[in-house]
Amino acid sequence: MTSRLRVWAIAALFLSGVGAARAFPDRPVTMIVPFGAATAVDLHARDFAQALGSVISQPVIVDNRAGAEGAIGAMAVLNARADGHTIMFTSSSIPVLDPVMKKSMQFDPIKDFAPICTVGSTSNVINITGVNPIKTAAELIAAAKAQPGKLTFAYSSASTRLAGELFQQAAGVKFTSVPYKASSNGLADVASGQVDLFFIDDISASPFYQNGRLRPLAVAGSDRIRALPNTPSATEIGVPAYKIHPWFGVYVSAKTAPDVVHQLRDIMAKAMKSPIAKSNLEKRGLSAMQVCGEAMTKLQMDEIELWRDVTKKAGIEPQ
User: Fold this and answer.
1) Taking the model in full, what pTM does it have?
2) What angle separates helix 183-192 from helix 202-209, to the nearest 10 degrees?
3) What is the annotated signal peptide range for this record (predicted)?
C-alpha cells in the first residue's frame, strides 16, 4: 500500500469511528426512587419518567429502592456504573434535610452526587382539624399565644416537622409536636381531632378537605395556590418567614463524566418543556421548577443553611 493510500485508509477509519459514535443514552435509563411505591416522590418520578422517555430514544425504568430513610436507594445510585444511565429522582429531603437531621450517613449528599435539575415544587399548608372552632390563621396565632403548648401538631418526616418548627419561630408561638411513622396515620388523627394541626402539602391533605375534616388556614410563601384560591398566603397573614416549598429533582453520581452530566441537563430541559411534563405537573398540582447545575447546588446549600438555623433555634439535635 502506498503512503497516500495508507493515509486515506487511516482517515476513513477515523471518520467511520466518528460517524459511529453512540448517542447518549444508548440503552434504557434506570430512575432510582429511594422511597416506596405510591409515595408522593414515586408518583412524581413516574410522571417525569414519562416526560423523559418522550424526548429520548430509550425507555426509562422506575426502580423503587426504599429503606433506611432513602439511604438504600441513594447507595444504589452510587454503586451503579457512573455513566449517566442510572439517575436518582428524589424530593429535597435527601439533598437538603439529611445533612441537617442526620449525624452520620453512608454517603455525603453534597460531595457524592452531581445535581442535574429540579422538576417541580409542592406546597406546604397549615391544616387544622375540622372539629376545632379556630377558623383563621389569626385566631390560631392568638390561641397559641394565649396558651403556649396546648395546641398540637403532627409530623411524619423531617420536612413536615421542620415546617411546623419554622411556623412557630416565624409567628412567635409554641405548639407541642406529635411524631408519626406515616403521614396517612398523622392525617387520620388530625382529621379525627386527636391532634390539632399538620403542616403538609395540599395534595396529601386534599381528601380530608372535601368532607370538612381538615381546614386549610394558610399556605407557605408569598402567593396563594391554584388548588386553594380562598386560602391566604403566609405573607397575607403577616408571617412572611413561613416560606417552605419542598421540591423534586434528579441527581447522578459525582463520578459521572462532565459531558454526560451536561447532556443529562439538556435532555431534562427538553423533557420539562414537553406537553407530557406540563400536563402531569398540572394534574398533580405541582409548580414547574427548573433549576439546574450550579444554581441547583446553590439552592441546596441555601436551604441547608436555612434548616440548620431552624433546628438550632428549636433545639433539635442531629440523630
Assistant:
1) 0.84
2) 40
3) 1-23
